Every structure is written in C-alpha cells, then in structure tokens.
UniProtKB/TrEMBL annotation:
Pfam families documented for this protein: GST_C_2, GST_N_3
PROSITE patterns tied to this protein: GST_CTER, GST_NTER
InterPro entries with a match to the protein in the record: Glutathione-S-Trfase_C-like, Glutathione-S-Trfase_C_sf, Glutathione_S-Trfase, Glutathione_S-Trfase_N, Thioredoxin-like_sf
Protein name: Glutathione S-transferase N-terminal domain-containing protein
Domain GST C-terminal: 85-204
Xref: PANTHER family: MALEYLACETOACETATE ISOMERASE
Alphabetized Gene3D superfamilies for the sequence: 1.20.1050.10, Glutaredoxin (3.40.30.10)
Residue stretches making up the GST N-terminal domain: 1-78
Domain of life of the organism encoding this protein: Bacteria
Native organism: Janthinobacterium fluminis
Amino acid sequence: MKLIGSLTSPYVRKVRIVLAEKKLDCVFELENVWVPETTIQLANPLGKVPCLMMEDGSAMIDSRVIAEYLDTLTPVCKLLPANGNSRERADIKCWEALADGVLDAGVLVRLERTLRAPEQQSAAWIERQMSKVHLGLAALSQRLGESAYCAGIHYTLADVAVGCALGWLSFRFPEIDWRGAHPNLAKLYDKLAERPSFKDTVPQ
C-alpha cells in the first residue's frame, strides 16, 4: 500500500497513526495539493489527501473510510469494536465526526486567511467557522468528562481523531487556549502525545 499525503494535514496524520498502531507497512508519498504541478487528481478526483493506493492500483479516499478499513486488516490494537456492537461503534464514529468537524471549520478559517487578500476576507465567515471550533471543543470536553479515554477506559479511533484535531489546532491556531478552557482535553492529549505513533507524526 502507498499513502499519499502531507506532513501537516491532520487527516493524513490520523491515517498515519492508525497505520503505526496497527503495525502495517505502507509507503508514504508526500504531495502538496496546493501547487500547480500536483498530480493528486490522478489518484483522487477530489484533489484531497489522504489517499491510500491499494495493491491492485485502486484508490481509497477520505480519512474516516481509510481508518475504518485499516482497522480490519489486523487484530493488533483494535480501534473499533466488532460490527456486532453497533451502538459502541457508532459512538466512536460520532467522536471522530465531531473531531473532524472541528478540523473542517478550522481549515476553512485558515484557507480564508491564507488564500484571500485581507480586503477580500469575510469576518462574518471566519467568526461563523471559529464558533464551530469552540462549540465543537466544548462538546468534546463535555463528552469526555473525567474518563481516561474518549470511549471510556480503552484507547480507540475516537482518541486518534480527537488527538489529531487538538494537535493541529496547537500547530495552526496557537492563539486558541483550548488547554486552559478544557483541561480534561489537555490531559488526554498529553497522554496521547506520549505514544510513539503520535510522537512520530507531529505536524511540521
């Protein structure tokens, strides 16, 4: 398998962490989708990363799809419960959707600020997206409570997703004091940051 992505994308980081936790071999190919010479459309017509190229030449897209697929390849470090426990599985996927939603809003703010001239930027649009970031963080914090991990006492894909969201916010939006506002999320992230899979994928 070959993973196409960047070193700064939190969605790519999620897949890289899953690959590491599952101890799966995969070639990592760097791709900058924002430069004119990018060839990402040859693999993913949507022009996004991550994109996982399979052994048969087919492509798998979207970090949520890829992560769920990778978890089926080996019993090592199961990140999602078996299909029989549909409620628990859906709960973990909701954690992932919420974490990714925070990222989606943050990415839109970053694109607005970096791709548009200052006079063309919409303050109302930025405020709307930042509201989603802050409300999403509050929801994640409330859901976590005093639990050791997102889904209780076990490390799951929910923790991977939340950890990637928090790490990216620290990287791209250091002015957001999510640690001060949500100390339980800070405690969770500090614990996750000690895992080799997180240490080896810090955005840079």
